[in-house]
């Protein structure tokens, strides 16, 4: 067992020079205060020094509990997805529903639909929520999630699948694209599918640049709102890793533009969901870190489904050997800021937590 003698406050200050060893936990993990304290103690024994989560609402008790164990607490916010509310936003505002290049509404895939990110009213609501969370709770930082154009990338970018269909070609987005670029389909191009094809055929580069600008501008605004409410809060963003050169054009996440705006850039390296071997992690980081450098804080998958009854495919059962190989890919990357384990609770009271602790001890 690790025997921590350092005080809570001192432990948090040490993160300035230590690598981050984060555990991503779902809200149900911290919903029960007593059980959460047990979880926090167990995660700390595994070498974890930061808790990351994502929710529409937070509990100061949970944040204080994390701080009491000497752990940092990073909030998270889903920007352009309302899956956590069972799509209530889309039900109230159907104009936010993403429209595919085929002209059809994007269908629900597992738990995900997505929200068109170009709507200014929705953007402002998220920005206000960022400021409210930072003002209300003693968080150490906040990560943006789903800050991208709609795609269920973990499934849609699996090997052997057809190229995902682009979105969103909703009326608001098409109008904004025309306003930003001056390129508007002629009146005879009357259907959404034909307008999407017209843009793809003639102005694909401008379309991708537009999508990236929408995301980058929003992230810049989010930083301003977060730092304005809590100047010392760290700012992070979860990003989709590059897969076959498709990611930037589909998500609008241009890493070279996003990295200067944030403190942490976290590629979600869910190799098992993507049906990739652990070696894919190292290959992906090799092309990612030259851009994001020491801000790179990868999220790595530690296990498959947290609940076998959930309607989400997290890939095949993940062995201990697979996890050890995953850690080996991370351990060799000396230029990264640390790692985040997903899902965090899956490493408690088993050899996976011991393997993580062993790697962390070597880092120190």
Q: Estimate the strand proportion.
A: 5-15%
Largest sheet: spatial strand order: 1-2-3-4-5-6-7-8
Structural class: alpha/beta
What is the terminal separation in angstroms? Answer: 16 Å
Task: Say how many strands there are.
Answer: 8
The helix/strand order is HEHHEHEHHEHHHEHHEHEHEH
- Portion of residues in helices? 40-55%
**Overall 3D form:** globular
Please name the defining characteristics of this protein:
11% strand, globular, alpha/beta, 43% helix, 364 residues, 8 strands
Describe the structure.
With 364 residues, this protein is α/β, with parallel strands linked by helices. It has 14 helices and eight strands. The protein has helices at 8-13, 27-30, 33-45, 60-68, 88-92, 120-136, 153-156, 171-181, 192-229, 247-251, 255-258, 279-292, 320-331, 351-363; strands at 20-24, 50-52, 72-78, 141-145, 234-239, 264-269, 299-301, 338-342. Strand 6, helix 12 (279-292) and strand 7 form a beta-alpha-beta unit. Helix 3 runs parallel beside helix 4 (60-68) and helix 6 (120-136) runs parallel beside helix 9. The two termini are 16 Å apart. Residues 1-16 have low confidence and may be disordered.
Short structural description:
The chain is of the alpha/beta class.
What's the layout of helices and strands?
Elements: H1 8-13, E1 20-24, H2 27-30, H3 33-45, E2 50-52, H4 60-68, E3 72-78, H5 88-92, H6 120-136, E4 141-145, H7 153-156, H8 171-181, H9 192-229, E5 234-239, H10 247-251, H11 255-258, E6 264-269, H12 279-292, E7 299-301, H13 320-331, E8 338-342, H14 351-363
Parallel strand pairs: 1-2, 1-8, 2-3, 3-4, 4-5, 5-6, 6-7, 7-8
Helix pairs in contact: 3-4, 6-9, 13-14
